[in-house]
Specification:
Elements: E1 23-26, H1 32-42, H2 49-56, E2 62-69, E3 80-90, E4 93-101, H3 110-124, E5 129-135, H4 139-147, E6 151-160, E7 165-172, H5 178-189
The structure holds coenzyme A.
Length: 219
């Protein structure tokens, strides 16, 4: 696939099929092995099992979800964790703490599926606005968040101490508006569409090992 001067890749005709039969469920301790395997592939300073367990132990203000792909027919193995996401909701603000998809399944709408569910649960917890931090060079993730109404609101210099990178702060306001409800419904309606459907080229996602993007190759 053609690589553009800005590092992005042009999608092949037809795009990448969405991952079939993925379900979203509350994260449980039994999922942590699969979660940590992904965590180690996508972040330079992975969260520990203890940190996830601590988050799971605060259900009044936190919601953590996993995306599960069914095991092969007649297999005795449990469903595979292919992604996860979390949020902390406090005084009307939803702080998205993490979103990750297994690198073999990027651009297959896994993160979108998680964000639709996570933002709905944030509304249930009383959120009126949502925020997150994302590496300034993580243009792929920023594009994802923009689809859900997040806009840049500032930079936290050196936020990622392990690499010295700056964080872009993004906010989505008026989560309880009809316009936001329509945006969420629109994203939910696109979940079974192929990857690349939006026309976005495959933008860089820093630090990820073994990434398979739109073209089925590394990226
Ligand atoms: C960012 C991340 C979570 C996206 O997960 P994903 O499951 O591949 O995202 P989706 O398939 O749901 O993407 C939905 C839309 O977001 C946009 N998007 C997502 N990743 C993109 C990329 N690399 N380049 C361009 N657009 C992208 C596209 O518009 C895409 O729709 P399309 O494929 O129909 O064009 C994934 O790349 C990841 O796990 N990265 C490592 C961890 C990370 O960076 N997390 C964010 C920390 S703040």
């Amino acid at each position: 696939m053609a690589v553009q001067p800005d590092g992005s890749r042009v999608r092949p005709p037809g795009g990448r099929p969405a991952l079939a039969a993925v379900t979203v469920a509350p994260m449980r301790r039994r999922h942590l092995r699969g979660v940590l395997a992904i965590e180690h592939l996508v972040y330079p300073r992975p969260w520990t099992a203890a940190l996830f367990a601590s988050e799971l132990g605060q259900p009044d203000t936190r919601r953590y979800l996993v995306a599960l792909a069914p095991a092969a027919a007649r297999s005795l193995r449990p469903a595979r964790v292919v992604g996860y996401a979390g949020v902390l909701v406090s005084v009307g603000e939803a702080h998205i703490t993490t979103v990750a998809t297994h690198p073999h399944h990027h651009r297959r709408k896994v993160a979108s599926r998680l964000l639709v569910a996570l933002l709905r649960q944030s509304l249930d917890l009383g959120a009126e606005a949502a925020t997150l931090e994302v590496r300034v060079a993580n243009h792929g993730a920023q594009r994802l968040y923009a689809r859900f109404g997040f806009v840049p609101a500032g930079v936290r210099p050196g936020y990622y101490a392990e690499t010295g990178e700056d964080a872009l702060i993004m906010w989505a306001h008026e989560l309880r508006s009809a316009a936001f409800a329509a945006r969420l419904a629109e994203q939910a309606a696109l979940l079974d569409r192929p990857g690349g459907d939006s026309g976005a080229p495959d933008l860089p996602v820093p630090w990820v090992k073994e990434r398979v993007g739109l073209d089925g190759g590394g990226g």
